[in-house]
Design goal:
- With 365 residues, this protein is an alpha+beta fold.
- The protein has one domain: paralog of FGE (formylglycine-generating enzyme).
- It is built from 8 helices and 14 strands.
- The protein has helices at 11-29, 76-82, 89-92, 118-128, 133-136, 186-200, 209-217, 242-245; strands spanning 5-7, 51-53, 59-63, 66-70, 101-105, 109-112, 141-143, 160-163, 204-205, 286-292, 315-318, 335-337, 346-347, 351-353.
- Strands 1-2-3-6-14-9 form a 6-stranded antiparallel beta sheet.
- The longest helix is centred in the N-terminal third of the chain and has 19 residues, at 11-29.
Length: 365
């Protein structure tokens, strides 16, 4: 049986949380009703969130039960004023974020403080003997290649692949063990969660889409944890900015003007935590969630612990990445892929259920 120890946040974590609190307070002044949702963000002097550490060295933060308003119903014209470089159809295509609806998360849970890292995934493979899909099926993944020209390909994809030279080990650019693992499929993520569950006698799984957005917002209804201004995203997340645009000049118009300090992935935890103590909920790597995708699901979604459609053909991913434009790195944005998809922007974050609170039974199957 594996071990799972409890520790308090470090001094660095405390400083990051303080910065996050300041950013969220500033967001409150940006518009009315910013703290109309539960729970409230931490206040100065409040104890740091409970953090546990598991067999693979992942730190998970306890997220309290609560309720929030999920989704977005911003009109295309309102979005166009904040994202002037985008063609109008991009705003119309966001219809699946509506209607905004009340969601109640009835049980607390532990969520990875950071995205699963390269080093943690490597330890899982070494201990379990599992073979990732990109290796097992021999087709590889996707990766950055400076000589690759998207305009000369049928799909116009930003990255080269599939190709066996690319996998979780090689996304086409250097990564350290503390960077988020990429080129992992939904099936790879579920395999990791099941292995940890068996190892520790706990329930690990992918978060539901509702749990993910609740954790991302951490008490704010704004587009981002620090408000509605896309340009301010560079202060809290690693997304497509002036640093990354150097490598993709054809999409420079969509890059944020500021610098977040990273052209590719960043070490996890490089940016301030949100009010729940979670890092990189936006940017760095897209994150698989458990739900099947349904474009009209929000119209019938239950209030308590929604699980997503009962069936489907593709799984939801959330949060954006180091290469994601600001419009698609909002808390409410939804995207999807087949469960076997592996990509140089796509990673994961795991949830561990609180034993005392019972199981939500998310559809990781």
């Amino acid at each position: 049986m594996g071990t799972c120890t409890v520790s308090m946040a470090t001094t660095t974590d405390t400083r990051r949380a303080a910065v996050a609190r300041l950013l969220l307070i500033l967001a409150w002044f940006a518009g009315p009703g910013a703290w109309a949702q539960a729970p409230s963000p931490p206040t100065p002097g409040q104890a740091s969130p409970e953090v546990i550490e598991n067999t693979l060295g992942m730190k998970l933060v306890r997220v309290p039960a609560g309720e929030f308003t999920m989704g977005s119903d911003e009109a295309p014209d309102a979005l166009a004023s904040s994202y002037p470089a985008y063609e109008h159809q991009r705003f119309v295509d966001l219809y699946d974020e509506a209607p905004r609806h009340r969601v109640r998360i009835t049980r607390p849970f532990y969520l990875g403080q950071d995205e699963v890292t390269v080093g943690q995934f490597a330890r899982f493979l070494a201990l379990s003997g599992y073979t990732p899909e990109s290796v097992a099926d021999g087709t590889g993944g996707y990766g950055y290649n400076a000589a690759y020209d998207p305009s000369k390909t049928e799909r116009g994809d930003a990255f080269e692949g599939r190709n066996p030279i690319y996998s979780w080990r090689n996304p086409g650019f250097p990564q350290g063990d503390d960077h988020p693992v990429l080129n992992v499929t939904w099936n790879d993520a579920v395999a990791l969660a099941k292995w940890l569950s068996n190892k520790e006698g706990a329930v690990y799984r992918l978060p539901t889409e509702a749990e993910w957005e609740y954790a991302c917002r951490a008490g704010t209804p704004a587009r981002y944890p620090n408000g509605d201004d896309p340009q301010a995203l560079t202060h809290i997340a690693n997304t497509f900015d002036a640093d990354a645009a150097t490598y993709w000049p054809r999409w420079q118009a969509f890059a944020l003007k500021g610098h977040d300090g990273f052209a590719f992935t960043a070490p996890v935890g490089s940016f301030p935590a949100n009010a729940f103590g979670l890092h990189d909920m936006l940017g760095n790597a897209w994150e698989w969630v458990s739900d099947w995708y349904g474009d009209t699901y929000y119209k019938t979604s239950p209030v308590d612990d929604p699980q997503g459609p009962a069936s489907g053909s593709v799984r939801v991913r959330r949060g954006g990445s180091w290469h994601t434009w600001a419009l698609y790195a909002r808390c409410s944005f939804r995207n999807w892929n087949a469960a076997s998809t592996r990509y140089t922007l796509l990673g994961m974050r795991l949830l561990r259920e609180d034993k005392a609170s019972g199981s939500v039974q998310a559809r990781d199957k």
